[in-house]
Amino acid sequence: MKSLKILIVDDVAVNLKLLRVRLEGEGHQVVQARNGVEALKVLDAEGADVIISDILMPVMDGYRLCHEVRRSERFKNLPFIIHTATYTSPADKELSLGLGADSYLHKPASAQDLMNAISNALNTAHQEPALSLDGMEVLNQYSERLVSKLEEKNIELTAAVNQLGLQTTALETAADAILITDRKGTILWVNRAFSTMTGYSSDEALGNTPRILNSGMHDAGFYRQFWQTIKGGQVWRGEFANRCKDGSIRYDDQTISPVLGPDGEVTHFVGVLHDVTERKRAEEELRNTHAQLRQLLDHSPAVLYALKVAGEAFAPRLVSENINRLLGFAAEETLSPDWWLERLHPEDRDLALTGLDETLREGVSCTEYRVQHKDGTYRWVEDNRRLIRDERGEPAEVVGVWTDITERRSAQDELRESERRFSGMLGNLQLVSATLDRDARITYCNDYLLRLTGWDREDVLGKSWFEVFLPAEQQPEVKVLHSSLLADQPESWHHENEIVTRAGERRLISWNNTVLRSAAGEVIGTASIGEDITDRKSLEKQLLRTQRMESLGTLAGGIAHDLNNLFMPILMGASLIRRVETGDATRKAVDNIERCVRRGTDLVKQVLLFARGLEGSRIVIDTASIVKEVESIANSTFPKNVTFVTTLAPNLPMLSGDPTQLTQVLLNLCVNARDAMPAGGKITVSMGSTDVELQYAAAHGGSGGGRYVVVEVADTGTGIPPQIIDRIFEPFFTTKETGHGTGLGLSTSIGIVRSHGGFLTVSSEVGRGSSFKVYFPALFDGAFVAAEGTEKEKDPTRGEGELILVVDDERAILDITSQTLAAFGYEVLTAEEGAQAIDTYVLHRSRIALVLTDMAMPIIDGATLISALRRIDPEVRIIAVSGGPIEAARAGKNGTPHFLAKPFTAETLLRTVFEVLRDRTPASRGEKAHPRPDEGRVNT
What we know:
The protein is of the alpha/beta class.
């Protein structure tokens, strides 16, 4: 039969699905509707080759649908088959056929009956309807039959529903899975247990066959025997391995019962599936366990034994065969009552017997002792025993296991000895040592760590390393490192971090780390050895600071040289201008120029003093002038929220000292006071004089008792904590942030004060401010001068035409020096570098009276030039000139007694030249005292 489009009409979804499966199984295309109205719409939209319809349906029943189809010009010739289970009397069939139906089938019709009815309807000429629902007689008949049958069926249906409900409930709630199939195996019904067991819902199972559960674990012969049994009308019982929807395998004990029709033929099959998966798995596990136990006993070094308890005596009942591997005896040799006692080590006999008594008393025991091998040696065994009682609760048997622990005991002895040596070594090393478990709990620490941190061992063992020893801010980073170390990552093998002592002090430790592993190779913890590098790091920082200061000194020396070269033409030019007849305004300008240059010179000296420790001059100074200078600097540079107040007592004594250095001391103290008041405040500088007793001065580092000038610098700042006040004068000690202080200010200041014979005291209160008092020895014996007492330059003596060779690589200095000398009666030759100077001196040796040379020049410097000139003429007179102290020292070592420090005035130059020319002492003897670079005429 060719493929047909068949319209099936039924209001029961299960009926539709079953009918659809059957028809599609025969190769036909199926469309469906739930009542007559839907069926007419489907016909109008899609058409059909055959209509199969139920009768009793809502909206429009099968009679009305058949009537409407036969009235339609388009569809009146379509084969129409009634398929019903509601109307079964001959009158029902007669009415159906009278309305135009081609065939009348009772549910459930077999697939063959359906195919035959369709074939007959297609191949037989259609008869016109004999009846019409339009006629009153037929309509009355239709209505009467419908009402009658509905009443009858309602009664039957109520009873059937009750019975069916009971049966359905029983089947649905059955613990076992139940399914019903037709003869071909198509599933018609399943209960909830089936869905639970297989994972397939009722809708997914209906219309399918049990092949959806095929696991592939049964061969073709199994299925052949299965189908032969049930198709032959016999019940099949057996075990199936089924594959569930999720792919898992379940095992079922199945009972498949055939259902026979009235003719004795099989019409359906009912299957009951009892899930035995867990039982199968338990059986499999039991088999595996038995096999594993057998294999374990065959290969295990542990020896099993059983002793029968008879009063206080023990009789060996069985021993496993592997005792031969442990002690060299066959099992049957060990079953005598005295065998065990005779082979106990004499030192362990009492311990072993005590273990047996403990077994009888406590029910279990575990003892380690030595048993003699057949070859005469002893083996260590661990004996685990358990008591078994009979049904009366009386001791019946002792079962035990011997485990060979000889190697473990030997390893333990070696480990204890190794630990003893290791602990002794770590205890004597000046290194921190600790071991941690995976959770960073301390499992070991050496004595050095305890001494370093002040903890007792019982206080730290078992505690978290992070909580006991680490600063809070470093814990996250070190926890990451600990995790990396447990993962054996190389970047965590070496690192540095601080630890906190019990007293709160921080120590920097450099760690070398490794992991601890179990016998199986698993990481069980970490081991670390660390070196306390706190002091070394501090020294390194101080060294770096010292190197930085040395570099700063070198830089300062170079800058000082260049600045002095720049100041010198200005200062000498000012001196020359003053000698020209000028007005008051010009003289004031010249005086201002000189003051500025001198101030610049003093600043250069201050830089050199700070960077290189240059020794300053000692002159009589008025301390009040220094206070006023610092006040001027403070008012112009300090924040506006800092008030600067000075209080000066009248008739203050004078001091002997270096004004630049004393300015630096006072300025350092004022800057520290400013930094101690970040939110602003008041700085008070007071000056007075007092008598100091010898004991007081000596206690504070002074040189002796007597009259002192006292300068006090007080602030209203944060104050100095008591625990650090004794350290504030240490070099490089600072409480300021990195980059905001070197820690050299106070140490430099106290050094300057002590070099002047004075001393310094400090008092402070946290939150209320600090006070520094500086004591300088006062000058007596009428050593008082006016505040404005500046020494005036004396008029230089003019030359008498002497020839002077001036050597300098700075053209400006060369020109101003030549002009000055020429203006005062000297003849001048010049050279811009050493080689040219040597050539000039050789040409004019007989006439040159004096050589004035710079010390710092390229290629041939001043020292080399002086040596060369002395080889040419040992009697040559030389004045060395430079802007830095190093060159002054080199000139002195080179035997040059005369030195001018840049910048100098014209008067200083002329006076020095005049004195050197008039000095008849041979220049080569170096007998004239070498003047200090900043004394008298050298630096005015």
